[in-house]
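Lab channel / #folding
Pinned by the channel admin:
"Please post every new chain as: sequence first, then the structure tokens as a reply. Keep commentary short and put observations after the output so the thread stays searchable."

First post following the new format, from NK:
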Amino acid sequence: LLLGPAPFIPVRNTIWSNLCGLILIGTGGSFAIMPNLAVLSIETEHLGNVSDTLSGLVSSLYALGACLGPVIGSSLTQVLSFRWNCVILWGISSFCIIIYFVVCMLELFSFCVKKQYDEGAINLTE
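Reply from TO:
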């Protein structure tokens, strides 16, 4: 929202607002990409040795996004303004963060229930 800045935020478009927006995008991107490969490796280790395939798939999809992102972004910028384009990117990113958070909470809940079941604190047969 700071990169545009968004039309509904009363902030002037300065170098500092753009710099803060780019820092937040870079930091968020590193938090989104790096842990996912480790989580995917852990979740797929029961399938055998698929780490090379998984790494190639993640790298290919990242490269596809790096290729299609500017094309779609420039097309949207021609129809909308750059400021609204940044708002759309923020909305998509926020949606992905919410979905990721919900999935993590469900995984944590199922892990806790399984741990309590293994310890005998929960009896599911009754």
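NK: Residues 82-119 form the longest helix (38 residues).
TO: also worth noting, The radius of gyration is 20 Å.
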